[in-house]
């Protein structure tokens, strides 16, 4: 039961961090085919410049500026695999990512057979997993990125 709870918590945390469109209405979702509105400001970070996308959350909340896929460490691949994180490399130009970077590899729960799935999890968890699992399909070891959300008020 504890392992099952930890799996759910890790799936939810990964989704909220790496898949922010779970929070947005369909009209303002970060769909590459929909019209996207870029922020007018460029933010300079330690590694380079970034420009965010503007979104309006559900529920009448204030808008946010979203900076997708800002690297915080070098990819843990090759000689860096299974080693402590190494600081990321600076980039040139302005990063303007339109969607989140891949999520870290993880074993996803099998919910193909709903009857069997409901034997080991509550109905609410199954409903959440149905919604979240498609968003976790893009996995890669190169997953050390942040999605940063900045409120538009008080800029």
TrEMBL record:
Residues 40-151 form the Carboxylesterase type B domain. Belongs to the type-B carboxylesterase/lipase family. It comes from Folsomia candida. This is Neuroligin-4, X-linked. Gene3D superfamilies: alpha/beta hydrolase. Residues 1-25 form the signal peptide. Keywords: Glycoprotein, Signal. It comes from the Eukaryota. Pfam families: COesterase.
